[in-house]
Amino acid sequence: MSITYLEAIREAQAKALADDPRVFIYGQDVGNFGGAFKATKNLAQEFPGRVIDAPISEDAMMGAAIGAAIEGMRPIIEIQFADFSTVAFNQIVNNAAALYWRTQVPCPITVRLPAGGTSGSGPYHSQSLEAIYAHYPGLVVMSPATVEDAYSMLLEAVAIDDPVIFCEHKYLYYHLKTDKLPTEAMPVGKARIARPGRDMTIVAYSAMVHEALAVAEELATEGTEVEVVDLRTIKPLDTDTIMASVARTGRLLCVGESFPWGGVTAEVVARVASEGFGLLDAAPQRLNAKDTPVPYHPNLWAAHRPTARSIAAAARNLLRS
């Protein structure tokens, strides 16, 4: 039986609840309704009193989670859309992120952010906020690109004593499937070589990994071998794996769905340019969404974000340089 990316997230939460009585889920409509995307479907019935509906106040939700964590609980907070997490920004970056460094008291909360765009979602339900949270010390930022990682990394997030921002991509919820969930996982902060190659490196994360893999397949028919690196974790960032890949290929293209100013792609390029300049045969490049709010219209949305077509064009330009 196949398991979707969304079902893997639900299964991970069920296992976390079953394995640890300190775990509970808190969020808007997560109870009998099963969550905005049904990521908590049937969990309230299976675990009475531990899958709790929250008021429509992300700020209050995060404050309650931090208080619970201080008292020894391990809350999983579902924010309906990543965009709305900014309502709780103060709680996340000033309280949760800094708590251990101020008090030596851990803050083991997991904040699930359904992130990224889908056709017709528009500017308030499509944003990718991983770089904003990665900016702040004290937060771990995860961005799984596969069904297997969605499951294993969410379990890791709950087990970690630090607050974790778990960026799960809405477009992948039903587009990815696997036959079996993993029993072992790569460590937190370790990137994955999704496809080996020798001619150039494409570093990507979340849904962009699959666009990059499609490009690698296309360019392979032209005799070009592209290595695709899936970051998996935005913070900590696995610079060693990135550098090793660039050392093999001599060229770097970093792709992200978020806005272009600053961000994960900028950080990757900056690290490679400053720490591995001698490894490069051409200037490192990056590709992001357009520097505008995310459009509603499906055709505009398709032109706004990186796609296999635009990534392939950028890759060919880099190969010619």
Keywords:
321 residues; alpha/beta; Rossmann fold; 2 domains; seven-stranded mixed β-sheet; five-stranded mixed β-sheet; 12 helices; oxidoreductase; oxidoreductase activity; Transketolase central region; Transketolase_C
Description:
GO terms for molecular function: oxidoreductase activity. With 321 residues, the protein is an alpha/beta fold. It has two domains: 3-178, Thiamin diphosphate (ThDP)-binding fold, Pyr/PP domains (Rossmann fold), CATH 3.40.50; 192-320, Rossmann fold, CATH 3.40.50.920. It has twelve helices and 14 strands. It has helices at 5-19, 43-46, 58-70, 89-103, 130-134, 147-159, 172-175, 208-220, 239-249, 263-275, 298-304, 308-320, and strands at 3-4, 23-27, 51-53, 74-78, 110-115, 140-142, 164-169, 177-178, 192-195, 200-204, 226-230, 233-235, 252-255, 285-287. The strands form three sheets. Strands 3-2-4-5-7-6-12 form a seven-stranded mixed beta sheet, sandwiched between helices. The radius of gyration is 19 Å and the shape is globular. 49% of the residues are buried.
